[in-house]
Amino acid sequence: MMGRIAYLNGIFMSLACLNQPHPNLNATLNDGILELALNRPERKNALFTDFYLAIEQALIEADQDAAVRVVIIRGQDADFTAGNDMQDFLKGNTAGVDGPAFRVLRAANNFSKPLIIAVRGVAIGIGTTLLLHADLVYCDQTARFQLPFVSLGLSPEGASSVLLPERAGYLKAAELLLLAEPFNAATAQQAGLVNAIIDGDVYQHARDKAARLVNLPAASLKITKQLLRGSTARVQDCINHESTIFTERTQSAEMQEAVSAFMQKRPANFRQFD
Length: 274
What we know:
By secondary structure, the protein is an alpha/beta fold. Helix content is 44%, strand content 16%.
């Protein structure tokens, strides 16, 4: 380490996630593989404003740094992420097209290098929608996913209203988004959200796949990813459109009822708004 600039194999790096790390984002760089481990276990890695922005910055800088060839996002231990931190969310910090959650989704959509996500435990809300922007996704049998937006009086995010039907087909996407129920690893694989369910160490499996990728031609990987994904602008427009509707829904009576019910530990009564 030289001052605030890391030095590796003759290359100076300006990755803030290594030089000025966020306390909840553990970053390591080994042989071209940048691992970003979400580390807030007491809240199941629930994400708040500064945490989101640290992830966004790490993705943007990694995309521009020649020392990084592949990025892995995972939990530090037993969970991926429980999604938005409720207290931070209720402050309105996630609202608007430029809200921190949408900035992370946009950064993932624009990321030009291989992006791998490994999931243990809970992957709720953005913990599931972020998977739609990865290139390879692996989970183990402990993984539990959920797209809870409708049950919170909200609406889809992360271009999931477009990308999920493309992956899973309309009926499966409708099932996951409309019913808003938790689902297991097998359902996630059926819906095209994960490549494989790993019996062993899913984090090590992700590293093994990343090690394969770092030894392949970087330019060929970028071009192939671009051809596979098509226009990132199309997805970004969808992220922006959904974020506008999502933000409007945060002011809805249904959303307020969902929050009240959560705080009071009771079932929400949405039929009162009929």
